[in-house]
Write a structure and sequence with these properties.
Blueprint: H1 3-16, H2 23-33, H3 41-49, H4 51-61, H5 63-76, H6 86-107, H7 109-113, H8 119-141, H9 154-165, H10 174-184, H11 189-214, H12 216-221, H13 225-250, H14 256-274
Helix pairs in contact: 1-2, 1-13, 2-8, 3-11, 4-11, 4-13, 5-6, 6-9, 6-11, 8-10, 8-14, 9-10, 10-11
């Protein structure tokens, strides 16, 4: 992989990882347009590893919150009084909510990296999940009072973790899945968005680290570690800016713009496939 392609893909990852538009779907499309075989083991590993850059940006952005939850959880392990602090419950929520995607991801890894690496799957994911996100947003809009972060329970976190598993289908979007699940449960847009980050950090850091170790030979033989490191760095910078923008946006706006974009993107990719500009695999 040449360095310019690594920069382009890093930008795509940074922009799309936390917006509800599917980073995997966008990376798959752009990789295909750049001429790379999307089912190649090296490209698959590269796609997973550069997500680490975006996740590290989230860790830095939410570092105070992460430390607060970690301290609250740890204190609660040894003190009954500390267990009355909502941070203890929320800490357990992050742990419990991260478990489903780890189990499902490891169990279905071959399917995710093989069968589902298909642009028609991306088209379906982009368009069909747009309907789910629109319905979820509409449901929350009808509620007089939406729930905030302190109201979240471990059951909420587990359910959001199950919703996150749907994002293993390219085109659905991890943040889009968890945000939709949160909105359906009456959680406000900002809290839903923040928890899409909190639940994504452990899973994606783990997946990226695992892929870096497991796919190191494939990356060395095909993509190269130089371009991979560049992609991680670019994704980090762009993702940090996109996180800040997204949280400001959802504080006063619905997700309608993302719904429209997802449909248009899905139609555009379908057009490229039907015109023979790109192939599905």
């Amino acid at each position: 992989m040449n360095w310019w392609h690594a920069i382009i893909l890093g930008i795509v990852e940074g922009l799309s990882e936390f917006l509800p538009i599917s980073s995997t779907g966008h990376l798959t499309v752009v990789e295909k347009l750049l001429g790379y075989p999307i089912d190649d083991k090296g490209i698959t590993a590269f796609t997973a590893v550069i997500q680490v850059g975006a996740i590290l940006a989230a860790v830095l952005y939410f570092l105070k919150d992460i430390v607060r939850l970690a301290v609250g959880w740890f204190k609660g392990l040894f003190s009954a009084d500390a267990r009355t602090n909502p941070d203890y419950r929320l800490g357990w929520g992050v742990i419990v909510g991260s478990v489903p995607i780890v189990i499902v991801g490891l169990t279905l890894q071959k399917v995710i990296e093989g069968t589902l690496r298909n642009l028609w799957v991306v088209v379906a994911g982009l368009i069909l999940w747009s309907v789910v996100l629109w319905l979820a947003d509409r449901t929350t809009g009808k509620r007089a009072i939406a729930r905030g972060e302190e109201s979240l329970t471990i059951v909420d976190a587990l359910i959001l973790g199950l919703w996150q598993c749907v994002a293993l289908i390219p085109g659905v979007s991890r943040s889009g899945a968890t945000i939709s699940g949160a909105l359906f449960r009456g959680i406000d847009r900002v809290t839903a968005t923040r928890w899409s980050f909190f639940l994504g950090i452990p899973a994606l850091l783990g997946a990226g680290a695992l892929e870096a170790v497991k796919g190191s030979k494939d990356i060395s033989a095909t993509v190269g570690w130089g371009p991979t490191v560049v992609g991680v760095g670019v994704a980090f910078v762009v993702a940090y800016a996109s996180i800040a923008w997204l949280l400001r946006f959802v504080a006063s706006n619905k997700f309608t713009a993302f719904v429209i974009y997802r449909v248009l993107a899905g139609v555009a990719v379908a057009g490229l496939l039907l015109a023979g500009v790109v192939t599905a695999r």
